[in-house]
């Protein structure tokens, strides 16, 4: 992106309501970081304050909303230009040339200490969280642009991926309790040592084990603790029992993103990246404990075999988890869907992984056209290993776990590593996440997402 593109886009807008500093801004990069930092930061500050003034009304009319949209547009365009040249400098300053590991949710605020007004402040995000999705101003879009630019660089992007593979703060706070008692209840998720395996359970029965801001950190911490456990080499992932009249006392693997919370604006943009680079990625790639890259031949990550118990259904994000597992035991009447496109978003890294199981055409049908994959049909058998009666899940689970032990788990774990290297290197994941971070930000704040939620969800 260059100044000519910026100029062309700005010419389409009516900025008569703005002052000359905004209207006449020219995003020319001088290659002098200090000089450009002051120039661009001052421009972003002007845009933010004007947006704030326009937003102070109790009820915004369409003209006000259009002004805010246009201001955010030119601000974001200028940030893309700035980040194209300076994102690597920002990351190296924030991490002290990659000596420090900073999680994505902290990095977006650390960057503001280096370049003021580059990303929304904590106070701005706090204010946004109080709004319904349809009333949000879209300022979180800049977080997606920023992280996309960091992830676009292989050295810094991989380092950021490594930061997200570190054990979480919540896990470390509960590690001593888990080691001594063998069980930790984190409310929305739990982790328990069994004789042969460590079990992680997602527990959000009110919403059929959907995932949201309340499950985000507990589930990641439970996964961390399972991986940190020294008493077992195999982990199991499953959903808790629910009390819904249709599924009473049945386990549900998961129903994906909590659409109720999404519509109410309770799910932030950062949720997608924290989840994808945290909990989901850790099941797939393990933990980074050595301060070395996890795909370094001499410093393997701390990883284990993961077995999933697919009971009832795995919708959206739950299906995404299935694609990271080493073994799936499925209720013969269960099914999988990836309705994200119908909702208006991208289904995490499913676009990167699903085709490896069922091929390109079926993947497109599932992601783009809502194809339901039954566990017992031909496509389901390509994802699931054992397809059995619901009542035999626990018995089969123990049998499968023992079969891994009988052959030696270390061989299975290193074969997992070899398979992953041939299918999805850290660098490939990092590159995918760079595009995902950018595009998902636009999806999350699109009018189509609101319309789809109202069309397909709110009527229910």
Give an overview in words:
This protein folds into 2 domains: 3-163, Methane Monooxygenase Hydroxylase, Chain G, domain 1 (Up-down Bundle), CATH 1.20.58; 167-424, Alpha-Beta Complex (2-enoyl-CoA Hydratase, Chain A, domain 1), CATH 3.90.226.10. The chain is globular, with a radius of gyration of 23 Å. The chain has helices spanning 3-10, 20-23, 33-55, 62-94, 104-114, 122-128, 141-151, 154-164, 169-181, 213-228, 259-263, 270-285, 317-322, 340-343, 350-353, 355-358, 360-369, 378-383, 393-407, 409-423, 426-444, 447-457; strands at 183-185, 189-193, 198-202, 234-239, 305-310, 313-315, 327-331, 335-337, 373-374, 386-388. The chain is built from 22 helices and 10 strands. The mean pLDDT is 94. The protein has 460 residues and is α/β, with parallel strands linked by helices. The strands form 2 sheets. Strands 1-2-3-4-5-7-10 form a 7-stranded mixed sheet, sandwiched between helices.
CATH topology value of the largest domain: 2-enoyl-CoA Hydratase, Chain A, domain 1
What portion of residues belong to β-strands?
5-15%
- Low-confidence runs (pLDDT<50, min 5 residues)? none
Decide which structural class fits the backbone.
Answer: alpha/beta
Distance between the termini: 43 Å
- Gross geometry: globular
CATH class category name of the largest domain: Alpha Beta
Kindly report the spatial arrangement of strands forming the biggest sheet: 1-2-3-4-5-7-10
Number of domains: 2
Largest sheet, in brief, is: 7 strands, mixed
What is the number of E strands?
10
| Estimated helix fraction | 40-55%
Supply Rg: 23 Å
The mean pLDDT is 94
Query: What CATH architecture of the largest domain do you see?
Result: Alpha-Beta Complex
Classified in CATH, the superfamily of the largest domain is 2-enoyl-CoA Hydratase, Chain A, domain 1
Number of helices: 22
């Amino acid at each position: 992106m260059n100044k000519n593109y910026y100029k062309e886009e700005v010419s389409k807008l009516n900025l008569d309501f703005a002052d000359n500093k905004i209207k006449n801004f020219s995003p020319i990069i001088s290659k002098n970081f200090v000089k450009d930092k002051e120039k661009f930061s001052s421009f972003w500050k002007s845009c933010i304050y004007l947006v704030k003034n326009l937003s102070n009304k109790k009820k915004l009319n369409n003209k006000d909303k259009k002004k805010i949209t246009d201001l955010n547009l030119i601000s974001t365009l200028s940030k893309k230009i700035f980040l194209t040249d300076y994102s690597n400098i920002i990351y190296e300053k924030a991490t002290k040339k990659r000596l420090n590991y900073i999680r994505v949710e902290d990095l977006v605020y650390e960057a503001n200490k280096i370049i003021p007004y580059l990303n929304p402040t904590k106070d701005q995000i706090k204010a946004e969280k109080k709004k319904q999705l349809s009333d949000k101003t879209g300022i979180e879009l800049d977080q997606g642009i920023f992280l996309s630019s960091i992830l676009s660089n292989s050295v810094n992007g991989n380092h950021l991926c490594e930061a997200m593979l570190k054990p979480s703060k919540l896990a470390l706070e509960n590690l001593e309790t888990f080691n001594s008692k063998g069980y930790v209840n984190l409310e929305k998720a739990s982790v328990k040592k069994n004789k042969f395996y460590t079990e992680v359970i997602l527990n959000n029965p009110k919403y059929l084990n959907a995932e949201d801001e309340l499950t985000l950190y507990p589930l990641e911490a439970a996964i961390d603790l399972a991986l940190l456990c020294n008493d077992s080499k195999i982990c199991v992932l499953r959903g808790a029992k629910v009390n819904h009249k249709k599924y009473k006392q049945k386990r549900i693997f998961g129903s994906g993103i909590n659409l109720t919370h999404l519509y109410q604006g309770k799910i932030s943009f950062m949720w997608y990246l924290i989840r994808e680079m945290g909990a989901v990625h850790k099941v797939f790639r393990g933990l980074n404990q050595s301060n070395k890259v996890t795909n370094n031949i001499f410093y393997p990550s701390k990883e284990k075999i993961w077995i999933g118990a697919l009971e009832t259904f795995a919708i959206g994000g739950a299906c995404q988890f299935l694609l990271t597992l080493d073994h799936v035991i499925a209720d013969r009447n269960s099914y999988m869907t990836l309705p994200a496109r119908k909702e208006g978003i991208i289904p995490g890294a499913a676009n990167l992984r699903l085709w490896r199981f069922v091929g390109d055409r079926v993947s497109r049908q599932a992601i783009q056209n809502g194809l339901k994959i039954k566990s017992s049909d031909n496509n389901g058998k390509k994802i699931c290993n054992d397809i059995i009666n619901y009542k035999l899940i626990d018995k089969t689970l123990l049998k499968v776990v023992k079969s891994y032990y009988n052959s030696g788990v270390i061989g299975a774990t290193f074969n997992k590593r070899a398979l992953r290297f041939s299918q999805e290197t850290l660098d490939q994941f990092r590159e995918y996440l760079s595009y995902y971070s950018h595009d998902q930000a636009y999806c999350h704040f699109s009018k189509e997402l609101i319309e789809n939620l109202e069309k397909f969800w709110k009527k229910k």
